[in-house]
Amino acid sequence: MVGLFLTRSPAISRLNIFPGIYFLATSPTLRLQKHRKHQLKTKTQTFSLTSPPSSSSFHTSRFYSTATRVSSLPKMETSKFDDNNLVVLGIETSCDDTAAAVVRGNGEILSQVISSQADLLAQYGGVAPKQAEEAHSRVIDKVVQEALDRANLTEKDLSAVAVTIGPGLSLCLRVGVRKARKVAGSFNLPIVGVHHMEAHALVARLVEQELSFPFMALLISGGHNIIVLAHELGQYTQLGTTVDDAIGEAFDKTAKWLGLDMRRSGGPAVEELALEGDANSVKFNVPMKHHKDCNFSYAGLKTQVRLAIEAKEIDGKCPVSSATNEDRRNRADIAASFQRVAVLHLEEKCERAIDWALKLEPCIKHMVVSGGVASNQYVRLRLDNIVENKNLKLVCPPPSLCTDNGVMVAWTGLEHFRVGRYDPPPPANEPDDYVFDLRPRWPLGEEYAEGRSEARSLRTARMHPSLTSIIRADSLLQQQTQM
Question: Residue ranges of the Gcp-like domain (predicted)?
Fold first, then answer.
């Protein structure tokens, strides 16, 4: 959302020029309100990348945005803009889905479009970066145009463009950033670079109107496990993180080894099969039981699962749909036992993290759980018990906003845009060899001293300074220039 180098840009002149935007009845808007959030049903449909997408494959939803660098607009100036006049296009290509959405400043989702790479995931048993990049490149123009069409808008109606710049796969991030800069440059629009994990956390503020800072957030996906304390916008303390593999990776590998349908991704496939199994039948050890911190490790649990599968002589190349009754029961028992222990690991770390967070911010009332794995109903149920016992309220976005999507990017971009954090419009004709600001390894917050672990093996080489440290540096710079 912000760049390594800080700049200050002039006020944007496009912010108040959209007084009346009308929408066709065939392209309804979607408004999430506090009392309706539990009634929300996903209308977004995805299409496979193995065949050309048709226009009918896209559906509406919400959008989220960010910028590549911080340019500070005085708060007195930004506060006067009417949220109804702010419209942001959000673009997300950090991993395996191509997504775009358009969101209004008041939280109205004007459109959402997602192009799925489900067939590629099934073919390669996971994300293959080069193939994912090629898939993004094939559909990015179509996805963005469809998002605008379904919002009944053109680029001239936008206030800004938001795009994920990290963390994620460099090859994939580049596709989205190139498209965002092309749109922004062609139509003289400011651009907001978004932190993917912050977007997962902040989209909950679109759903739950009572969610204000400070709050806690557990962000769980295929590549990340992070527990943060959100002090304010752009200011986070990291209480715990992944030491090796994230829970989503463990779900994906377990699903693959059990011969499940990877087109749905590993989490939903394992959760469905686990309903048929005995969660206490296989005695897996809970990871990091003796480490009194809030960090996560799933590499060891993955090894335990693989050994259990080998012991039962389960052939992962044989689909579960073709397994014998006994073989299917064995697979279901392993799935259920794995899921129980994987989530128990989350529970134990979250319980400790809440205690730490209450010491730092005694007034917190909410804990957000978001990211792809947060769509798992078993995960939500177990964590809700932990949070309730600590007298907090659990906030989970609907499943359609937990997985990677353009809405979360657009909304995060809007939040930062309001306080003047954005980049000025890029050149209309950017050279082909332009080096984009990509941040594949980009921490969200500053590490809590008590949360450091000797077991942590996370590499620090080529890691970008955290979002929090950059924003703090910018705030300090502003204070110094105003003295």
Answer: 108-411
